[in-house]
């Protein structure tokens, strides 16, 4: 499968199917969409929730991981899979470490053995930072406050050691957009406001809402151009979580009155969060010199409203 690859290429040209581990998830769904739009063959995986065209894969099952890698021999692996529930990670640090560090590392190690030229795109988070001096760029020193942040940072470091220049790490934050499972913050806001229930959200957690279709498209572009190393990729607006909720309500034409702001200290969240958080990038303009690849929040919310129809969940009717 790799025999015809022209090693003189500057840009990386995938020649087998790309593999999206976690293709049933929010970002993975849009990665598959972006690859399909470009006519690039790809296979996605799900763990618990099948999506059209995904195959089952549990990262904890090493034999199945190896069998799938041998079958597909993917030259490019996107790795958005993980245990992404931050408070759940705090309650179950063993599962958190397995799903967010140990199992992705094992997959990368197996993939390197089976397809030595494999390139991996791994997804990480601004929760590797403590939120003391945000927004943080790629040079900022990580200091995670939570089990989730610690596992993601450890995965970044071990993957870098293993893969070197065959690795691109994308740190992102507050991802929202149309999704099949309807789990992300935009759906939570829409559902709660539609039901007229109070929506309590932190007034002092600040970050960048990031629109998933744009994020995925930019990541596929970067992968095809063989970007490597560490890149911060998040939306251009940076604001408190409550303001994000209000902008969603406005864009979805929902009454924002039930939105109540409270400081994090009063919320009793299990995991500590970075407060003055968010991401900026020193490197993004090298890859996208003429535009920011993630559209501004209000445009993204308008697109969310227009696009979130089957096969994606509709936040206004679900
Ligand atoms: N969403 C955000 O705001 C955000 C912010 C910063 C960073 N990130 C990072 O971006 C990545 C993707 O986030 P997301 O929002 O797309 O997450 P998501 O919607 O929760 O999707 C996670 C995906 O991983 C799969 N998965 C979970 N455990 C697995 C396991 N043990 N074996 C195989 N597959 C497994 C899930 O499959 P099933 O659903 O089928 O079970 C799903 O496809 C994560 O690495 C996360 O840390 C996300």
Automatic annotation (TrEMBL):
EC number: 1.1.1.133
Single GO BP term: dTDP-rhamnose biosynthetic process
UniProt KW Ribosomal protein keyword: no
One MF annotation (Gene Ontology) recorded for this entry: dTDP-4-dehydrorhamnose reductase activity
Pfam families membership: RmlD_sub_bind
Record keywords, A-Z: NADP, Oxidoreductase
Reactions accelerated catalytically: dTDP-beta-L-rhamnose + NADP(+) = dTDP-4-dehydro-beta-L-rhamnose + NADPH + H(+)
EC top class named in words: oxidoreductase
InterPro entries noted in UniProt: dTDP_dehydrorham_reduct (IPR005913), NAD(P)-bd_dom_sf (IPR036291), RmlD-like-bd (IPR029903)
Every RmlD-like substrate binding domain range: 19-289
Its biological purpose: Catalyzes the reduction of dTDP-6-deoxy-L-lyxo-4-hexulose to yield dTDP-L-rhamnose.
Family affiliation: Belongs to the dTDP-4-dehydrorhamnose reductase family.
Protein name as annotated: dTDP-4-dehydrorhamnose reductase
